[in-house]
Design goal:
The chain is an alpha/beta fold. It is about 40% helix and about 20% strand. Strand 7 and strand 8 (about 185-190) form a beta hairpin. The chain binds adenosine-5'-diphosphate and (4-amino-2-methylpyrimidin-5-yl)methyl dihydrogen phosphate. GO terms for molecular function: ATP binding; hydroxymethylpyrimidine kinase activity; phosphomethylpyrimidine kinase activity.
């Protein structure tokens, strides 16, 4: 049996709700074979990030080389890449192996407030990685950092999407989870804007929403979907996962990766 193959290059969340763990669960539920190249280990739970241990560059490089040269990759995503040398290495590897269908989730700060990207690395994300992206998926605070402008409205989100596209990404999805009211995501491909809207779900259990959303886009691209269709599936996937989110731990619980699959089987 053949199967679409997706690679996540990201950090480990020991709590299992975000990072590599969220990505691999999402790939599996969407019927895609998942592989990982860990960039960092975090000791993390629903209450926050308690430690960050970046991996040696050699370890990151060898993981990517190992899976690409043997198993092959139909689509890949990046998550937590906390330092300039890691961003530069990952960008060089993506170019060297011409890894297709790259989704860049510009992870900066965890829900609990811990910084997952050093300030000095913001520019490297813009100049080295975003130009390689088929899709880049900033949330509002990330889009503000990437553009240097405040975002208060859907119009501001559209303006940010245009500016981020100018950095070289093919499509920008500015996620509106941090704005009040409906959860509106803006998709911009340089030609037209699409608004993906869902009702806001009142829950604090949203740990890992961004990781899960970008992993779902990656899985659908790996299967050969076009970007707009992939983003629409991802929006449905994350809406299901949040509406059925899990009351685990004492803080921000994880979303429910199985909810979408269960709904589609019913
Ligand atoms: N409370 C919510 N109800 C419904 N959808 C949400 C909610 N919070 C986030 N989303 C959706 O989840 C996805 C991730 O968004 P966001 O939370 O902004 O990203 P991040 O986890 O990177 O901060 C987006 O599609 C967004 O619209
Ligand atoms: C290893 C790792 N990567 C990414 C996130 C961001 O996830 P979120 O902002 O959705 O909590 C995280 N908390 N941990």
């Amino acid at each position: 049996m053949t199967i679409a193959r997706a690679l996540t290059i990201a950090g480990s969340d020991s709590g299992g709700g975000a990072g590599i763990q969220a990505d691999l669960k999402t790939f599996t539920v969407l019927g895609v074979y998942g592989m990982s190249a860990l960039t960092a280990i975090t000791s993390q739970n629903t209450l926050g990030v308690h430690g960050i241990y970046n991996l040696p560059l050699e370890a990151i490089e060898k993981q990517i080389d190992a899976v690409v040269t043997d198993i092959g990759v139909d689509a890949a995503k990046t998550g937590m890449l906390s330092q300039v040398p890691i961003i530069e290495l990952v960008a060089a590897k993506i170019r060297q192996h011409t890894i297709p269908n790259l989704v860049v989730d510009p992870v900066m700060v965890a829900k609990g407030g811990a910084r997952l990207l050093e300030d000095s690395a913001q520019q490297a994300l813009i100049t080295k990685l975003i130009p390689l992206a088929k899709v880049v998926t900033p949330n509002l605070p990330e889009a503000e950092v990437l553009t240097g402008r405040e975002i208060r409205s859907v119009e501001d989100m559209k303006d940010a999407a245009k500016r981020i596209l100018d950095y070289g990404a093919q499509t920008v999805v500015v996620k509106g989870g941090h704005l009040a009211g409906d959860a509106i995501d803006i998709v911009y491909d340089g030609q037209m804007f699409e608004e993906l809207r869902s009702a806001r779900i009142e829950t604090r259990h949203t740990h890992g929403t961004g990781c899960t959303f970008s992993a779902a886009i990656t899985a659908e691209l790996a299967k050969g979907k076009n970007v707009m269709d992939a983003v629409k599936v991802a929006k449905e996937f994350i809406t299901c996962a949040i509406s059925d989110s899990l009351e685990l731990g004492g803080g921000h619980g994880p979303t429910n990766h199985w909810a979408y699959g269960r709904r589609n089987q019913a």
